[in-house]
Amino acid sequence: MKRIVSLLLLLLYITFHGFAENGHQLWLRNKSAKTVDVVCSQSSATLTLAKQELQQGWLGESNASIALTLKSDKAIKGDGFRLRKNEVQANTESGILYGVYELLRCQQTGQSVNEKVSNPSYERRILNHWDNQDGTVERGYAGLSIFWRKGDEAFAVTEADKRLWTDYARANASVGINGAVLNNVNASPTC
After folding, report:
1. Which among 58, 67, 64 is positioned nearest to 108, based on CA atoms?
2. Which residues have a Cβ under 8 Å from the Cβ of 122 and sit 6 or more positions away?
3. I want to staple 90 with a disulfide (CB 3.0 to 4.6 A). Which of 37, 54, 81, 158 is the partner?
């Protein structure tokens, strides 16, 4: 009888934990997004991305209207933004994107969206990678490089690579990172 109960408990555990989150999506999980009307008078790749993020991750009231406004404001510095309940205003397109991520983060964490101006403390916010061209990582703890590979396939860019790089860029932008440096540790110095 104990064996049967133990087996049932093990099966229940596997059933509920067999589909565990791997952390790849970070806080950017798009769960049950509601419809939202995104209004923006300008168009660019960055603004299109901001609109897509809102449409895929909106957890506010259904059929709300959100304005993305590019407008010069002396209170907003660099890639900063002004956040309101139904508007993200910034001096730059990147500021709009950072503001959209802040709005979505507030929704996902259950925080109220209060009007505020958010300015970055530093103009350049970068990650420094210590990846070798053979795909190993000098100062990393999560596997091989996502930028380099060893052997003949080193220069073949796959769709999986593109998705991974897109996810990487999206994750960085969602927390305000605006650059990355790749150090090739094993490279010979050149003049």
Report:
1. 58
2. none
3. 81
Nearest to 149 by CA among 133, 160, 131: 133
Place of tokens 């996810």: 167
Residue listed under structure tokens 């990678």: 129
Would you tell me how many other CB atoms lie within 10 Å of the CB of residue 184? Answer: 14
Q: Do the beta carbons of residue 54 and residue 106 sit within 8 Å?
A: no
Total residue count of the chain as it appears in this document: 191
For residues 55 and 100, is the Cβ–Cβ distance under 8 A? no
The pLDDT value recorded for residue 73 is 92
Render pLDDT for 132-186 as a digit per residue (tens, 0 to 9): 778 888 776 677 888 877 766 666 788 888 888 888 888 888 888 888 887 766 6
pTM for the full model?
0.76
Contact status, residue 183 vs residue 130, Cβ threshold 8 Å: yes
* Surface-to-core class of residue 98, CB atoms within 10 Å of its CB (0-12 exposed, 13-18 middle, 19+ buried): buried
